[in-house]
Design a protein that fits this description.
Elements (H helix, E strand, L loop, with lengths): L2 H19 L13 E8 L3 E10 L4 E12 L9 E9 L2 E10 L3 E13 L12 E14 L2 E15 L5 E13 L3 E7 L4 E9 L4 E10 L5 H8 L10 E8 L2
Antiparallel strand pairs: 1-2, 2-3, 3-4, 4-5, 5-6, 6-7, 7-8, 8-9, 9-10, 10-11, 11-12, 12-13
Length: 248
């Protein structure tokens, strides 16, 4: 073994030992101001944050009960921090991989999870509505409160409005590798409401929903009355589905 290789192996072993013994709280120095952790446990190599919050400078947009990670040391060679993660909150959990790059650029890949769906999870949901959501192959780039990349699939099931009317299940899919504005397809999964719509999301988190919907059973008066609050039907029963907002 040459002297150069021996020095490199020694340096690698030293850095690995530091990662194993350095406390997890040292991670705080690498995180952008938008991410806060109330309590750190474990080491940089394998650690946990209790009560993590993500804000956009104006308000908290996400709060996790716990976040566990195992570091991917090769990402340090690219001056970033990468790790496999598992996060949890009272209504659900998610797992995947994340990188934090210089300047606070956050890259999430291969995220999957599930959660109770209500306004605390998705602020654009009408008051009193609830259901369940599954996240599949989700990917996101986030920098300075802007979205730089988006892809993946969201599956909503057991959706119920505030009057208890069952609205069924839906699928929202964004193709991988798309650029802003991000175009997603919204469709139903065979429940009582038939939906054909498109969702557009911009980098600054503004969104629009445009399409149409109708009750599969034209004789379901209770469901029809619920849909009447959103729009009126045409001769074939189709109703306009339109909404807009911003996640900020």
């Amino acid at each position: 073994m040459t002297l150069r290789k021996a020095l490199l192996l020694g340096l690698a072993a030293f850095l690995l030992a530091l990662l194993i013994v350095l406390p997890a709280s040292w991670m705080a120095a690498f995180l952008p101001e938008s991410i806060r952790c109330a309590q750190w446990r474990g080491s940089i190599w394998r650690g946990q944050c209790q009560e993590l919050t993500l804000s956009n400078g104006q308000k908290v947009v996400m709060k996790l009960t716990s976040l566990q990670w195992k570091l991917q040391p090769t990402t340090l060679l690219r001056l970033s921090i990468g790790a496999g993660f598992h996060s949890a909150w009272p209504q659900g959990e998610a797992a995947g991989s994340v990188q934090v790059k210089p300047g606070g650029h956050i890259v999430v890949r291969d995220m999957r999870g599930s959660s109770q769906l209500d306004r605390s999870f998705f602020g654009a949901l009408p008051e009193g509505w609830q259901g369940h959501i599954d996240i599949r192959d989700f990917e996101l780039d986030w920098s300075s409160s802007n979205i730089g990349h988006l892809g993946g699939e969201l599956l909503v099931s057991n959706l119920v409005d505030r009057r208890g009317v069952v609205l069924g299940g839906y699928r929202l899919a964004f193709p991988p590798g798309s650029t802003s504005p991000y175009e997603g397809e919204l469709s139903d999964t065979g429940g009582p409401v038939e939906v054909q719509a498109k969702v557009q999301l911009t980098a600054d988190q503004s969104w629009t929903l445009e399409g149409r919907m109708r009750a599969r059973d034209a004789g379901d008066r209770r469901l029809a009355q619920g849909l009447d609050m959103l729009s009126s039907p045409d001769a074939s029963g189709w109703r306009r589905l339109s909404a807009a907002g911003q996640f900020r």
